[in-house]
Amino acid sequence: MWKVPRRATAIAMTENIALPLYRHSLERPDALALSVNGRELSYRELATLSRRIAGCLQTIARTRRIGILASRSLAACAGILGTAWSGGTYVPLNLKLPQTRLIHLFSTLELDALIVDARGVALLTPEVVAAAPRTILVGDDAHGIPSAEGADIRSFSMLNNQGPEKPADITEDHLAYIEFTSGTTGVPKGVMVPANAVNHYLKVMQDWFCLTPDDRAAETCDITFDLSVHNMFLTWYAGASLHVMNPLQMVAPARFIRDRAITSWLSVPSIIAMMRQNRTLEPGTLPSLRLSFFCGEALPAGTARAWAKAAPNSRVENIYGPTEATIACLRQPVIEPIAITPNREIVAIGRAYPGMAARIVDSALRPLPSGIPGEIALSGAQLARGYFGQPELTAERFPLIEGERWYLTGDLGVEDEDGIFHHLGRLDNQVKVLGNRIELEEIEMHLRAASQSDHVAAVAWPLSDGSAKGIVGFVSGSALDENTIKDDLRQRLPSYMVPSAVHRVGDLPLNGNGKVDRKALLTSLDTGTAAVTENAL
Ligand code: AMP
Predict the structure, then answer these.
(1) What is the pLDDT of residues 80-115, one digit of tens each?
(2) The pLDDT of residue 360
(3) pLDDT at res. 10
(4) Which end of the chain has fewer CB atoms < 10 Å from its terminal CB, N or C?
């Protein structure tokens, strides 16, 4: 009897995000790939280091998730590339996380290894090491490797020379990274981003903007912000060089751009506001730039014009997107006459990338016609897989609409008659504070515990150029003083989420729905009456 041969199920593959680095290391081995903290690495050197890290990670592969407790350093870049090379998923861990939160993340993520730089090493207390994965790789910038019983802690220079010749083959469902962002329930949510989605983004951007090996891109972000993925991986995709800015250089970006002859720039717009304040953004001062992208916050039209004048040889683009749709997926060129959002004086967010779709929906997820505001929903090749370990939240935020998977951004928007999208603010209490995405409810949850009072509120304040500079807390009915509350919050939240002031008030103002009236609280801060109320207690 004939046996019917079993049909092999075809497993779809996708390109490893470290593959362009490998290719350029063969084709142009001596070209500059990375300049960071005074060190310059060619494509050959960066590929060799990534391969060695990958060799170590492959020997311990279990979950294939690797934590990167590092930023703006060689260990961060090589750790990310080595993880990808080994076929793993990198998880950037914020260096501003308090110990308890770091330990909590370790317990949920089940990491295979941790990669740390000098700043990460400083966080390795005995408690952190005890909760961390057994294998910890330390960048060569760190002096004095800590030792701990039961832990296998090695510096990069101790890694042997072996490692997979090429970046690992990966399948279509492979996750490139998991990026943690603030969550309303008090627990941060991990956005799982597939390599496929990153590859789609890179291809679209490269088809449009054609970076070449002569380009010199700046790394303006920490690795916990997904704009860093654009800066790193678009650069290496094109065989160009990446110039990582350290925190000091971030204070004087114009000088950095001029000194390094930077040609490609992507940052949050609040950096432009800072440069305007410092008077370092004068017309014609940034002639080397040919590509300037802004993302992450509303781009005020005046700010965009000032940048365009300072960088007369540059295309300027406002790009829009949440981490859940991989870096950005709508774009609006800043060309006179600028497409401006009525009554907001900000640049429109434009149209969807090829392979992506945007629409405005009502609360029943029905599409709304142009001119009617509603929630911005996104669909297409760049959508994230969802939130790590949170299937219910994933189902809620990534619903199926007419058989298609969409992501509900929580952004209020409108599509105009020309098909251009505009951002009108948020439908919830998510805010951006100096580029960091924060859910105010998350701060309030911890403020409740820290103040031992149920009556609390947090607002983003002060606002300037459409972006918030800090957080202010309010508590009612707490017996604890401000410093005690803030000290407690520092143990629970990353530093950028800790309120700069916590006002103790008699009663919190309520709106018609009986909810805390955040607008009234902001007015009390603007008019200086918040402090007066506190003094009257
Ligand atoms: P993140 O996940 O940190 O990239 O933050 C995503 C959120 O930032 C979006 O949902 C928007 O609220 C905001 N955002 C991103 N890009 C823009 C933009 N170009 N204009 C206005 N808001 C933006």
Answers:
(1) 999 999 999 999 999 999 999 999 999 999 999 999
(2) 98
(3) 73
(4) N
Determine which helix (DSSP H) or strand (DSSP E) holds 294, and give its type and residue range.
strand 291-294
**Where do we find the tokens 């807390």?**
473
DSSP secondary structure code for residue 231 in this structure: I
* Pairwise CA distance, residues 325 & 249, whole Å: 30
Tell me which residue has its CA closest to atom 15 in ligand 1. 296
Q: Is the CB of 330 under 6 A from ligand 1?
A: no
Stated pTM of the model: 0.94
DSSP letter, residue 7? P
User: 10 Å Cβ neighbour count for 343?
Assistant: 8
Span from the CA of 300 to the centroid of ligand 1 (angstroms) = 13
Q: How far does the centroid of ligand 1 lie from the alpha carbon of residue 522, in Å?
A: 22
Position 321: which residue type? G
Is the CB–ligand 1 distance for residue 323 below 6 Å?
A: yes
What is the CATH topology of the domain spanning 193-426?
Rossmann fold (3.40.50)
Ligand 1 contact, 317 CB (< 6 A): no
Handedness of CA 267, 423, 421, 201 (dihedral sign): positive
Q: What are phi and psi of 162, to 5 degrees?
A: -85, 160
- Spell out the domain ranges in the chain: 13-171, 193-426, 434-535
Beta bridge pairs of residue 414: 422
Q: Which residues of the chain have pLDDT under 70?
A: 1-9, 465-466, 531-537
Six-digit token pair at 300? 């005020």
Q: What's residue 7's pLDDT?
A: 55
- Residue corresponding to tokens 């007419």: 402
Q: Which of 316, 312, 277 has the alpha carbon at shortest distance from 293?
A: 316
In this structure, the residue with its CA closest to atom 8 of ligand 1 is: 296
Distance 297 CA to ligand 1 centre (A): 5
Structure tokens, 346: 């900000």
Domain 13-171 has CATH 3.40.50.720: no
Given CATH 3.30.70.1340, say whether it is the number of domain 434-535: no
SS3 173: coil
Ligand 1 mean position to 75 CA, how many Å? 28
Supply the DSSP string of 505-527, one letter for each residue: ESS--B-TTSSB-HHHHHHHHHT
